[in-house]
Automatic annotation (TrEMBL):
Pfam entry (one): MGH1-like_GH
Designated name of the protein: Glycogen debranching N-terminal domain-containing protein
Domain Putative glycogen debranching enzyme N-terminal: 10-192
Stretches assigned to the Mannosylglycerate hydrolase MGH1-like glycoside hydrolase domain: 320-592
Extent of the signal sequence: none
Amino acid sequence: MGQSNTVRILDGNTFVVSEDTGDIEATPSEPTGLFSLDTRFLSTWVLTVNGERLNALSFDDLQYFESRFFLVPGMATHYIDAKLSIIRERAVGGSFREQLTILNHDERPVDLEIRMDAASDFADLFQVKDEILNKKGELYTEVETNELRLGYRRGNFRRETVISSSMAARYDSKGFAYTVHLEPNEQWHTAINVETHAVGPGGRDLRLGLRVHGNERLALQHDLEKWIADAPKVNSEHGRVASTYRRSLIDLAALRFSPLSLGGATLPAAGLPWFMTMFGRDSILTCLQTLPFTPHLSKTTLRILASLQGSRFDDFRDEDPGRILHEMRYGETAAFEEQPHSPYYGSVDATPLFVVLLDEYERWTGDVALVKELEQESRAALRWIDDYADLVGSGYIWYERRNTETGLENQCWKDSWDSISYRDGTLPPFPRATCEVQGYAYDAKIRAARMARLFWDDPEFADQLEREAAALKERFNRDWWVADGEYYALALDPEGRQCDTLSSNIGHLLWSGIVEPERAEKVAQHLVGPRLFSGWGVRTLAEGEVRYNPIGYHNGTIWPFDNSFIAWGLRRYGFAEEAATIASGILDAATYFDGRLPEAFGGYQRELTKFPVEYPTACSPQAWSTGTPLLLLRTMLGLEPHEGHLAVEPRLPIGMGRIEVLDIPGRWGRVDAFARGRIDLENLSD
């Protein structure tokens, strides 16, 4: 089943993906069903009336956490004769509730047999993703008078789905049914509750499922309203900006995830359907994008990542002291160490980015207390950069997985198997060092020096970090510059040989500040030149490279998040025009996705396709794509904290019109920013 005919609702780590009728008929390889804590709790949820399947007249996504389906019995050709209509209203919030209403439009009474087939395979999300459903435990079903209990146990690991109804139902091992008599113009109604229960491998109750009754649905609605009300307001003459911003805010609310140890505090999960959990890199980068709008997400993210920071050497989890986690999972395969995500530390960039976020957060908020609270974790992260990440002894951050069975091969953000290559298309050996991570390390040292000097009362450490950063910058600009192309190499191999492909990663170097000023203009020209810039955005790999493919996951597609940081980097070095060009392309693309930018889309030339081409398996919504319009707003308006105040230096794309961002929170209280785009003089009519 493709994405086009699916309906998705979500609330953090819990989500439902169904057909447009509301039915769920999952296969082992499709992410359809009710999922929570990385487990599928419903794999079958099929409604019939008198043994007949239903067809959709329409469906509405009311909010991210609820949907409504309008159905009739029979095939599409029979719609005009339908004497019954069925409404399914669904809300998710921990678990989910479905309200079922049946209306009789006939002039005669009818007798109906209403049935819901229900089952669960309790598939681990990793098993669905890898298309391997190999359950080692026991499935069980318990039929009781007032409920149906579906379960799975493997030792002390247990997952259960408990189904009950407000109207009396007949439960059996494959679902439940009602016998209903309806007089003319009469309607029948029931509310079906589905609870999820989870017990960990040590017998610990991870979470009791929630019943989404009216009060909780109202609480979700009020929470969303408060979320929107607390965020800055965006008004624009160009409608796409304000509508895309609102869509991003709502999706960011939907993706808020509360880890079990946080007691209700939230951070952004990475993306639906595969990554509805905590990711170090994704959560940090999303927080950097959204800081001017939702700064409290950063505080939660920093605290939880600090609490789970690596403390030992563990080859299975690729863990080192001081290393920030990559991914945390709660499903069966993680619980029984069939994969290492409990948590897994195989990320080479999350650790320096942790330090970057802490400093950026303080610059915006003035929250000195958090900087002091996380001093030791920051120092441990910096020690990891110097003591454990330099696998070759060259002064750079390298990666090579120690878990060769289930660990990640590529531990940078471009983590697909073929994303790092030489110009001739061959793949380098391990360990590998990618360019953007060296920029993150440089930035982390510069920012940590500021924190050490101002807040940790350690000026000697600050001086040391600044010397190390200067040496890294000099070394990097010597070793990574591709002289015949005038850009920075994507990576180095362990012999110091350049992976000399032209890639979007060079834009992250501008953001980090590691680029020598005299080389910045050439880098900027590449980023908006025809090989990298498609008209919609910057491609991950330049057209003309051997491995270039406009729909290659990291070898030619356009990633909105990538472009937002590139635009930020261009602004840092004074290339406001180029940054505006990228912002305009990405925001134009967003209109074709109803304001919801996907994880990635095709890198085809804009003139060729006339619209952005969807990448077939892209996550949507996805956190750092959701954060992209927010960071682009920051770059277009030139919003930067400066000496305790908010500096504004706008440069909008031509034709953008006026933009207002009101009530921007920070250490300055709440302030407003205004900007007006330039007029396209060439296309003005007489």
